[in-house]
């Protein structure tokens, strides 16, 4: 389209559109913008900059604009590019386009190129549920993925631009896309609009299967859609907010604040919300410890186990597995693997005690035993216990591993080969079933994970089921067993490789994708539904509000204090106890009621163990499959429940093509006809939980709402109504704002977090998927650049005993400014590691801001570039203190092409270079001439650095270091009469030596001078929380050190001059945890 020259706006330094480009001052941000866009400059309404901790008036100005678009009319007299701030201009209304046709999906080019950009960071969805970062360089827009929900640009002149797509008041959700398919659609539409022809919408919303992501003809497009064919318009107001600033974090902070105002505060900023108290204490989640096999006894064992190690859980999440759910009638089993007691005959354990880890594979070409059982190489401060599956037992409950003698091994003996074959087949079946029933890592593409687990199970069944292998065979000529092992291994490996590199990787709208969609939704639909209903959870639906039978007890039955026996005494399915025996009579001689709800007793017992907060998990639509239309209770509450198959947008299917045959897509979701009825559902569910003593909820599976809005006003409108209902119910029943949002990385959800202050900011922590461990840390940090302005980032649970990954994730949580909770199985903990995060009281030292990458690595890929160390910065309580975590997360990534975690070429080490200026809050709070005392946690080394001084360290693969930074204090010391020298003591309170974020223990510091006597004195005082040893620094040795008014013996360790001189002062606080007053007394010699 030919550019039309227009006069610049009066505000020549603000955002404006002129000559076909979006400009600020003399810089071009987007070149080749569609003529239908208009920009309206808006003020920066922030009072203070959280990033710099100063009033906005003391910071560099931020330029902000909000873009809208309208359809050009053939007789329009207005210029194609203009500023909507002009007075008297016709308001943007949903007018018809040149064909007289309104659209539910618009694709407009917003830039042919980014001429002023040197590098970009795009936060885009990588699957239905989650986002990952993508990096690119130069002015290329080809690498910006579809479903980009936040874009940050580094300009060549050292400034930064943040772009945040919005949701309009009439329910149109916008995203950015550099996908060639969207570019082709935008070109067609733009050409049609220019030529005033009737084919302007002929290809809108379609994708050409022959085009690929990242061709030379790609453009950056804005995609705006309602998600419902009946909700259409020709123009949309407020589709994109853009901010230009001197800092990337200032640009992000300002653009999110402006977006909130533009959307009439459909979401609020984190700084304006009530933060739940669970963020300040240590927690434990049942998911990776038990999966669906969670029981009250298992929960008690987990709480006891952590408390016994000195790290009590004060916050517990009862994850998936407590609700009353069932599949559709055609797929029901006699004993359900979710809602009924785990069978007593589970391999190697009593029922309710299974700690079997799911065999989630590393999904690349090198999947093997290490991928299933966890990584090797344990750092010094982590236990050697792998996070993989414990050994299975044989029929007699004994270990049946490769070290058993031949008499126990099942090796063939004369006359016993037929029995061995039968036993082998039985064990193979049981092993696959056992592993598959514990497979559900919710974020891991559900059906893919179920299939992958079954396939990996087949491949590893020879060992896990104790099929006689080569080393166990006495008679090496016994070919049937050899053949069975070979076939199982080959099938597992071949099928898995075929699925991940064939089916799952099928490009959207390609021939193979269409074929697999046909098979998944048609021919094999019943098979998928049967498999998922039998082994997984995604076609189960809520049939009762109350907890399932595992969490009930007979009326009048006295629950014992023995947690190991508790599960066996609780009522099992169909009114029977876990072992299948008939309930005994109660004291009155009557059989107890088997439908009595004991959930309140379960919660009471949990809190009786010292737990302060208990949350329960549920899905956004009740459960993965929604509400059960055949349930009499659900039918009584809601007039109509229909099974709706999600219909995802072209952008989402381009990101995750396998959603076309996902089990939720195939099985559908039970949705109420009137969206407003979810207010009643949330209210009744939360009222039941609150009455039972529950303090909050974790609400999962939110992002599917985008595919369920057709015929209901669209996904964005449906999400807005449901979040209003959800938050209203949480406010009513959980007054501490007890809500964790999860699987929520579509902007329909994020931009509707009005009051909720916690949300997961990355895909799950997968204990057995090595490739995901490092990627998880990077994803959380980069997603927090955007999401951290709206919520406190939740980094997910992790497992402390997971080798190198456990230590890596513990260090990341220490600097993440996030809640800290684990999902260790009972008895499987690295207490030495956990004690560096958790005090004996259960309190943690949470950093005060969301942990984000330092400025120098925001636009670099720390996972695959082979050289960058990921550095995450944060601040602590004292305004001029901070913390920087350094991590080597090279060697794995999320493959957008394959849709899986993949291992890259391993990087043996990276060099991390740390400087005080890495802590963004120190850049404006402090003079660059100021000095900072910096302490490395793992080495214990201390240096005195200026703002620009760098401390370089070498980090091997998956290793880390944490640097605590504290500003050096001092007094001016005017001196006495008679020309006596000035008295200038200098000091710094750094932090606790035994804690990963030891600087978080220093709550405040000050000093007092006394010049009334000949002996001039200065007393430096710090308020410190915790126990153990405090590390401080002093230029000269203090006369005395006191803790809570009592003098203590301290250690004085001089530093070399090259490290800044002075000495480290190590101060014992004692074993009593609490707030301590620490005094350093300096006296003039």
Percent of residues in helices comes to 10-25%
Residue windows where pLDDT falls under 50 for at least 5 positions:
1-12, 74-100, 196-216, 345-415, 431-478, 554-595
Assess the beta-strand content as a share of residues: 15-25%
Compute the CA-based radius of gyration: 31 Å
What characteristic shape results from the CA principal axes?
A: globular
| Main pleated-sheet profile | 8 strands, mixed
Mean pLDDT: 81
Structural class, from helix and strand content? alpha+beta
Total E-strand runs: 46
- How many DSSP helices? 23
Main-sheet strand order equals 8-4-7-16-13-12-10-11
Q: Please report the distance between the alpha carbons of the first and last residues.
A: 80 Å
Structure characterization notes:
The chain has 1085 residues and is of the alpha+beta class. Strands 8-4-7-16-13-12-10-11 form an eight-stranded mixed beta sheet, covered by helices on one side. Strands 27-26-25-24-21-18-17-28 form an eight-stranded parallel beta sheet. Strands 39, 40, 41, 42, 43, 44, 45 and 46 form an eight-stranded antiparallel beta sheet that branches. β43 and β44 (1046-1047) form a beta hairpin. α8 (447-464) packs antiparallel against α9 and α20 (770-787) runs parallel beside α21 (803-815). The protein is globular. Mean pLDDT is 81; it is low at 1-12, 74-100, 196-216, 345-415, 431-478 and 554-595.
